[in-house]
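Fig. S4 source data, part A: sequence.
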Amino acid sequence: MIKSNRVGKGIYIIVILISISICLLGIRSNGKKEQQRKNEHIKSTLKDETVKINQLTKQISQFYQNDQEEFLADRIKEDELKDIQLNINTLKTEADDFGVEKKDFTADTSEVRQAKEELVAKIEDIKNKKNIQNQVTALLMQKPTNWAANNEEAIIKESTTAEKILKIRHSVSKAETQWNQAIISLLDEMDAQVKQYKDIEQSIDMMEQDGVLTSNATIENVILIFNQLPQIKNETLKKDLSDKLDVIDTLLEKEETTESLEEQEEVLGSE
C-alpha cells in the first residue's frame, strides 16, 4: 500500500514538471513570436519612414528657387514650414519611438537618423535665411525682387543706420555660398548709401552752425556738394540735404548782399 502511494506521488510530480515545462516552452515560444512581431513592425515602420523622408525632402525643395537650394522661393508660408518641421521631429529613430526597450532594439536606423539630421539642417537654413532677409528688407524702401541679382535697385530707408546693418552682418555666416555673398554685397551697398548721406550731411554741417556760416561756407563748396546729391538714392534723404544746402545758399546770398551794401556805403562815404 505504501509502495503504491509512493508511485502515485511520483507520477503526480512528473505530471506537474511536464506541465511546467510545457508552459515554459509556450511562454518562450510566445516571447519569440512577440519579438518577431515587433521586429517585423520595426522593419515596416522604417520603410514608412523612408517614404516620409522622401516626401519631406520634396516639400522642402519647394522652399528654394532651384535644385541648388541656395536662394529661397519668393513666398514661404510660416504654417507650412512649421508643419514640415513637426513631421521631421516625429521621424522614428530610437527604441522609444518604436515602443521597444533599448536592450531589445537591434534595428539599424542610421540612414533614417542621418536623413533626419539633414532635413533638420535644411529647415534651420531656410529659417535663418528667411529671418536675415526679413531684417534686410526692414531697412530698405522695397523688398528686393531678386536676392540673387545685383543690388542697384536697393534703396535704404531714412531710419537705416550703420549700426543696424552691422548687426545683420554679424548674423550672416562667413561661408562662401552664393546666398551669403549676395547678402554681404547687398549690405555693402546699404553701408555705402548710409556713408554717402553721412559724409554729405557732415560737409553741410561744417558750413553752418546755429544759423551762422563758417569759413567752409563758400559757393564752390555749395556747388561741389550740390553735384553730389544725385548719388543719394533715397528721395527723402536727398531732399533733407537739399533743404539744408538751400539754407546755406540763402545765408551766403544775404552775406554777399550785406557785403555789397557795406562796400557801396564805404564808396559813398569816401566821396
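Fig. S4 source data, part B ends here. The chain has a mean pLDDT of 85.
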